[in-house]
């Protein structure tokens, strides 16, 4: 069975696995759970064996997967979502998950885990929910429901990492250079000050130049500091427009924009729609 839309790909067939690698491997976050047999995948300079009850998680901007070999009895479940959706889910979690960036960095070099029966049960449930929703093409809320299921699965992944890896911010971090620390501090400040929208403000707090801050962000994440700030701001704007009936003027006030007109201009620039048009599109 292979099911997909423009924003999610789900399969438990070898042909679906091959198709996903050919069309989406460079632009997707992939989670693969081996149910039986094994698959050997070339990753980060070595052959990695994913065996029964192992889960492999490839996060954005990690090393591309190389050649692979599968055993005759290989059975699996795989879910792939676009980088943009995955990063959007991460932005949504920023305020409730203070160590999310550390976890993503950890997954880049440690993508393989052996799951307990309970964790496998969770995976089976999420896979089944996504399958049912992908098959229901008549649902008016199909995309929103699929995104919510993906959000729940992402939180489950972050919660699982807490159980198997220590991410205590009070402990010395190993192999972290100045740039890593600066980027981590910047994302922490974004959570604490989501309504600050000037790169200069963050750079001043970090005692570095705006240009250097953007270079660090670009190197560590592929996005500049201004792009990070815009992503966080737009995520909050979309939340207000999708999930509240607050007047545009009130949303602008709560988000500390100077006025409703500037808020509308900002929304149009970053989403392509005015706030009112965005709301109407969501309701359509």
Folded structure, characterized:
There is one protein chain. The protein is an alpha+beta fold. It has two domains: 2-164, Regulatory protein AraC (Jelly Rolls); 178-283, Arc Repressor Mutant, subunit A (Orthogonal Bundle). The protein has twelve helices and nine strands. The strands form two sheets. Strands 1-2-8-3-6-9 form a six-stranded antiparallel beta sheet, with helices on both faces. Strands 5-4-7 form a three-stranded antiparallel beta sheet, with no helix packed on it. Strand 1 and strand 2 form a beta hairpin. The longest helix has 23 residues, at 142-164. 24% of the residues are buried.
- CATH architectural designation of the largest domain: Sandwich
Report low-confidence residues grouped into runs of 5 or more: 170-176
Q: What is the topology, as strand order, of the major beta sheet?
A: 1-2-8-3-6-9
Strand content: 15-25%
Helix content: 40-55%
Distance from N terminus to C terminus (CA atoms, Å) equals: 31 Å
Reported for the largest beta sheet, the result is:
6 strands, antiparallel
The number of distinct helices, counting runs of at least 4 residues, comes to 12
Series of secondary-structure elements, N-terminal to C-terminal: EEHEEEEEEHHEHHHHHHHHH
Oligomer classification:
single chain
CATH topology of the largest domain: Jelly Rolls
Features:
284 residues, alpha+beta, Jelly Rolls, Arc Repressor Mutant, subunit A, 2 domains, six-stranded antiparallel β-sheet, three-stranded antiparallel β-sheet, 16% strand, globular
Outline:
The chain is α+β, with helices and mostly antiparallel strands and 284 residues long.
